[in-house]
Write a structure and sequence with these properties.
The complex is a heterodimer of chains A (about 120) and B (about 180).
Chain A lengths: L6 H17 L6 E6 L2 H6 L1 H14 L5 E6 L11 E4 L6 E3 L4 H13 L12
Parallel strand pairs in A: 1-2
Antiparallel strand pairs in A: 1-3, 3-4
Helix pairs in contact in A: 3-4
Chain B lengths: L3 H14 L4 E9 L2 E8 L6 H6 L16 H11 L4 E6 L3 E9 L11 H8 L7 E8 L2 E6 H8 L7 H17 L6
The complex binds adenosine-5'-diphosphate and magnesium ion (MG).
The site of adenosine-5'-diphosphate has 18 residues of chain B, from helix 1 and helix 3.
Chain lengths: ~120, ~180
């Protein structure tokens, strides 16, 4: 059974990685923000958030932070994911599901190609 | 909502917004009754506001006129033969309590508490959580203060750490029989 004490091994590894990251003049971090108000949660924002975390962890992406915010103001289009790449305009994805979340990490966050199909339709 | 763990996430988000430093999430299953308590030390509500808070048109939000989080949780409890209550003291905190008849046909499953906890754990929000799960007297506790202590300055947001925490909570809840609730 895992316990909090087992976190030590991961922590030690992280501590050295974080020192490396701080020392390299790495570019600012990309932020991936999921709307997590009632509307988002009931539309499936939690599995989307967790899929994003899984993808960032398994790909070992270092300058990417997954976080959450309140209502993003378009309840009908939830789950909503906003991607902030430093130096670029914010990109808003709507009606995101875990499959789309994986794609957003793979093409936008990793390769810099915005997923046009998941943007708000005019 | 499809899982009570989603209602819990939503109700705890209220506590985070109310600038709570500590939130207790207690889930107790015993004698065919499930009791969920969410207790925070956030800014609380005054009596007048509290009276209306279970009504879907009460909210302090600006983006939307209706607050649905509390009414949805209340509905889930009442639908399953249980009861709902909310108490609050301005400047002290708020406690939300919901009970559910475990074998009621309309009782929503507890769902993935581990995912809910991992979604809440975020250094952008300095709230600490104490999760207590008890199933027929078998208990599991997860304390984020203890986690932060062990992490010794490493941000809790690191995805690798969150994945570990998710597995840990899942394993422990399954071990005490919580997966079948
Ligand atoms: N734990 C809490 N502490 C302080 N105020 C709260 C708390 N929970 C709810 N509230 C107040 O009640 C309102 C309604 O909550 P809710 O039903 O979840 O809808 P919403 O969060 O969308 O406004 C909130 O906007 C907030 O003003
Ligand atoms: Mg709410």
């Amino acid at each position: 059974m895992k316990s909090i004490a087992d976190i030590k091994a991961i922590r030690d590894k992280m501590q050295s990685e974080i020192i490396l990251r701080d020392n390299s003049d790495s570019e600012a971090e990309t932020r991936v923000v999921v709307g997590m108000a009632t509307c988002g949660i009931s539309a499936g924002a939690r599995p989307v958030y967790n899929t994003l975390l899984d993808e960032v962890a398994t790909r070992g992406l270092k300058n990417v932070k997954v976080t959450r915010s309140g209502c993003l103001g378009m309840c009908k289009l939830e789950p909503i994911v906003e991607v902030f790449v430093p130096g670029q305009e914010k990109v808003t994805y709507v009606e995101v599901n875990p499959e789309k979340a994986k794609q957003i990490i793979a093409s936008h966050v990793v390769n810099g190609n915005v997923c046009q199909d998941y943007l708000i339709k005019e | 909502m499809r899982e009570l763990a989603l209602n819990i996430l939503d109700i705890v988000e209220n506590s985070v917004k109310a600038e709570a430093k500590n939130v207790l999430i207690s889930v107790v299953a015993e004698d065919n009754l499930l009791t969920i308590v969410i207790k925070d030390d956030g800014k609380g509500m005054d009596e007048e506001f509290l009276k209306n808070v279970t009504d879907p048109f009460t909210t302090t939000r600006t983006t939307r006129k209706v607050g649905m989080g509390i009414p949805l949780f209340k509905m889930a409890a009442e639908m399953a033969g249980g009861e709902f209550s909310i108490t609050s003291t301005k400047g002290v905190g708020t406690t939300v309590t919901a009970t559910f008849v475990l074998d009621h046909i309309d009782r929503v499953p507890l769902g993935d508490l581990a995912e809910t906890m991992v979604t809440l754990l975020n250094d952008d929000f300095p709230t600490d959580y104490l999760l207590k799960v008890s199933v027929d007297g078998n208990e599991y506790e997860f304390d984020t203060k203890e986690l932060r202590e062990q992490l010794d300055g490493v941000p809790v947001n690191e995805p690798e750490i969150l994945l570990f925490v998710k597995d840990m909570i899942n394993e422990n809840i399954t071990h005490i029989g919580g997966a079948k609730i």
